[in-house]
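pls design
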């Protein structure tokens, strides 16, 4: 499924239009095109600050956010490359703490596109090359690179000697690119392993752990998995982490969800398995409390969308779009809706791209969500809202089609007792999440 990007800057938009005219449009895997493009640019990937490379089906973005917070809390500077953007393309390239500016981005894209014209490079390959070029030119103490798709053949995997690599939660997604089974997908993601570079992972079921271990051994990478060389627990309002170097305690993450302590622990473990960056214990505590990651169980603030709901309502946003993400989001939502005394009605607003599994995503919400309002995902190929409604009704939900998110919110308000303000979750697509953030006046900064 191709990425789409627009900009309010005419100079940036001109380069994005040019990129679309040159790009094949769809995701394509392989290192031949990105390698050729980077060679023409002087191989900037070989001149990056120490790289922390993160893969995974779910949680890799949150892990990158925790890494960034801990590094910056240590008084160090860090570049960050993530995907996709939510509102502005600039979100993909963070330079020593700040999103890249429009003027610099336009020049950078033009420079890369001048070298990419005859290569058939994808949108992600061109933008990855642009990020590497920017990171090679501006000093920083570290560089966090999030894998785009898979690992082994992802454009980011041209980095020959990262400082440390990590794999977050694994699940089934992008089967047309990565394989039909969890083990095949795990093997692709473990392809970021490099000789002599620590590969830090979460605890996986035996078959998946064996596949990851086999790929790592073939690459000559030592594996350090949760439950082995490092351990963590989350209870009594704190996270306890332990490895051979000692124990660390932090508050539980401010990011919502029972899965976030594991992402924080993975970030801590990655930083504890490298020897270039000095991270004091207090920085981990700051990361737990200060990390924010847009559209991952984000409660929206006051804005045009939240004002469409009755006073006292909660409007949450999550870009999760696969069954594993849905299970985590549903568990989080259950904690919010059923805090121990009483319960609030839960309503879903769902829009999904056409290459995602709606039945798998909706199943964890059966018995939790009272209603579902299905919406399109503007400017993207998406499941017909009527088809989503049929699936939701099969799971026992009251479901209807809405023209867009504001209409869905208005419909929920019209059917709600003002004395019992609802909890509403918008989910199913990061592209939809970006539209929601823009509409509510909360673009990532």
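designed seq:
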């Amino acid at each position: 499924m191709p990425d789409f990007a627009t900009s309010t800057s005419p100079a940036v938009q001109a380069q994005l239009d040019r990129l679309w005219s040159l790009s094949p449009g769809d995701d394509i895997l392989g290192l031949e095109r990105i390698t050729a493009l980077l060679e023409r640019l002087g191989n900037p990937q070989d001149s990056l600050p120490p790289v922390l490379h993160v893969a995974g089906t779910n949680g890799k973005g949150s892990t990158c956010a925790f890494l960034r917070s801990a590094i910056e809390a240590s008084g160090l500077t860090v570049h960050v490359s993530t995907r996709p953007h939510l509102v502005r393309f600039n979100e993909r390239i963070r330079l020593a703490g700040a999103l890249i500016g429009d003027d610099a981005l336009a020049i950078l894209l033009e420079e890369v596109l001048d070298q990419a014209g005859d290569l058939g490079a994808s949108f992600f390959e061109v933008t990855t090359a642009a990020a590497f070029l920017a990171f090679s030119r501006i000093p920083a103490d570290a560089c966090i690179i999030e894998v785009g798709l898979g690992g082994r053949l992802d454009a980011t995997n041209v980095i020959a000697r990262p400082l440390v690599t990590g794999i977050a939660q694994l699940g089934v997604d992008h089967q047309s690119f990565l394989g039909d089974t969890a083990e095949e997908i795990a093997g692709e993601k473990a392809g970021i392993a490099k000789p002599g570079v620590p590969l830090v992972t979460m605890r996986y079921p035996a078959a998946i752990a064996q596949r990851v271990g086999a790929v790592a051994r073939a690459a000559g990478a030592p594996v350090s998995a949760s439950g082995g060389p490092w351990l963590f627990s989350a209870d009594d309002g704190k996270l306890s982490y332990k490895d051979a170097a000692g124990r660390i305690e932090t508050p539980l993450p401010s990011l919502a969800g029972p899965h976030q302590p594991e992402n924080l622990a993975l970030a801590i473990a990655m930083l504890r398995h490298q020897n270039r960056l000095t991270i004091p214990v207090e920085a981990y505590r700051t990361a737990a409390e200060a990390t924010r990651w847009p559209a991952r169980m984000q409660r929206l603030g006051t804005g045009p969308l939240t004002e469409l709901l009755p006073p006292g309502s909660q409007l949450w946003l999550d870009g999760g779009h696969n069954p594993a993400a849905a299970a985590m989001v549903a568990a989080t939502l259950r904690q919010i809706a059923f805090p121990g005394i009483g319960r609030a009605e839960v309503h879903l607003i769902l829009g999904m791209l056409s290459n995602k599994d709606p039945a798998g995503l909706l199943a964890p919400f059966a018995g939790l969500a009272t209603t579902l309002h299905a919406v399109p995902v503007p400017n993207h190929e998406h499941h017909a809202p009527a088809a989503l409604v049929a699936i939701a009704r099969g799971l026992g939900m009251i479901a209807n089609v809405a023209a867009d998110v504001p209409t869905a919110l208005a419909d929920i308000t019209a059917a709600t007792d003002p004395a019992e303000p609802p909890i509403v979750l918008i989910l199913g697509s990061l592209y939809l999440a970006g539209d929601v953030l823009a509409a509510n006046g909360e673009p990532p900064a």
